[in-house]
Amino acid sequence: MLSELVYLSDAKLRQFVPLARRRFSGRLKMALKVSTPLVGVDVSPAATSDERERLDHLRRVTEQIESHARWFTDAEHRPGQWIWFEAPLNDMLLDDPFSHMVVFLDPADPVEGYDPLDASGRKVRLLMHGSAEHLLLPAPPPRQEPPPAARIVTEYATGGTAWTSGAASRPPAYSEVTRSRAWFRREGGQAHDTLDTLGHQDLPVLQADSPPTQLSRLGHLHQGTAELVDWLDRRASAPTAAWTRGYARVTADLAYPPGDGDTAAAFSRVVIASPLYVEYAHDLP
Question: Contacts by 217-224 with C-beta closer than 8 Å and gap 24+?
Fold first, then answer.
C-alpha cells in the first residue's frame, strides 16, 4: 500500500526517541511513494537500510500518536496535543519574509462530504503551518505575496488642532510641529503579525477558552488569526482543495463566541496546528 505524501516533518520525527527497541509484527508493511529531492525514489520494503529505518520510525511514531490523537473538531485541545484530520486543504507558499513557511487551510465554502461542525452546529476551521522545506510536492504551488505589514501612523496635536500623517487634511507647519505632541500607533498588519508568530513557533500555552492574549508584536491573537483566515480564503477556494489526511500537533485552539464581531457568523473556532505529515486521501469523500 502506497501513501502519497504532501508533507512530512523530519524535525518532528526526530523528536520521538525510542526508549527501547520493539518489534512490530502482523502489520501491513508500509511503503511511501515520494517524488522529491529529499528521497527521490519510490520507497518500498526493498529500500535501503536508511530508508527502511526512516519508514519504520515513521510507522512507530504514527502508531504511538494514533493511540491518543483526537479528531480536530473535538473541543478543548491544548497546545502540544495531537489531532488527526481528514479534510480538503489548500496549501500556499508565500514570498519573503515568510518564504520558509507553508500554510494549509480548509475551505470556507461547502465541500461535499466535509462538515466540520462543533456541538452547537457552527463551523470549525483548520489552519496548519509548517516548514516549506518539508513540502514533498513535485510541482510546488506558486508563491503568493504575503499580507501587508502594519504601518506606523503618527498623530500630532497642536493646541486645539489634530493632524494624522497620511491623511488628506492640511499638515501642520514646521513651527507648529515643533510645538506639538506626537503619538505613534500601528495600523493594520495583524494577519502579517500572526504569520510572523506562527513562523517562529512563538506562542504561549493557550487554553481554548483563553481571553485575547497580548503577544510580542501581536496585539490580539484572535483578531489576527481571523484576518489571516480571511486573507487566505480570498486567495484559495473549495475547487482547488485536495482531500488529505494526517496528524498534527496543536499550536492553539481559538474560540470565537457567538456575537464576537463579524467572525461569529463565519466560524466558532480555528484550530491552529503544525503537521507531522499530510497525505493525499484519494478514497475520500
Answer: 217/193, 218/190, 218/193, 218/194, 219/186, 219/190, 219/193, 220/190, 221/194, 221/197, 221/252, 221/254, 222/254, 222/256, 222/260, 223/190, 224/190, 224/191, 224/193, 224/194, 224/197
Q: How far is CA 10 from CA 135, 196, 275, 277, in A?
A: 11, 22, 11, 9
Give percent of the chain with pLDDT exceeding 90.
35
Q: How far is CA 212 from CA 186, 191, 209, 229, in A?
A: 18, 15, 9, 17
pLDDT classification of 13: cutoffs 50, 70, 90:
confident
Other CB atoms within 10 Å distance of the CB of residue 222? 21
- Tell me how far apart the alpha carbons of residues 189 and 146 are, in angstroms, rounded to a whole number: 11
Instruction: Round to whole Å and give the CA distance between 271 and 23.
Output: 35
Task: Grade residue 157 by pLDDT with cuts at 50, 70 and 90.
Answer: low
pTM of the predicted model as reported, rounded to 2 decimal places: 0.73
Amino acid 177: pLDDT:
44
Say how far apart CA 285 and CA 278 lie, in whole Å. 16
Tell me: pLDDT of 38 over 50: no
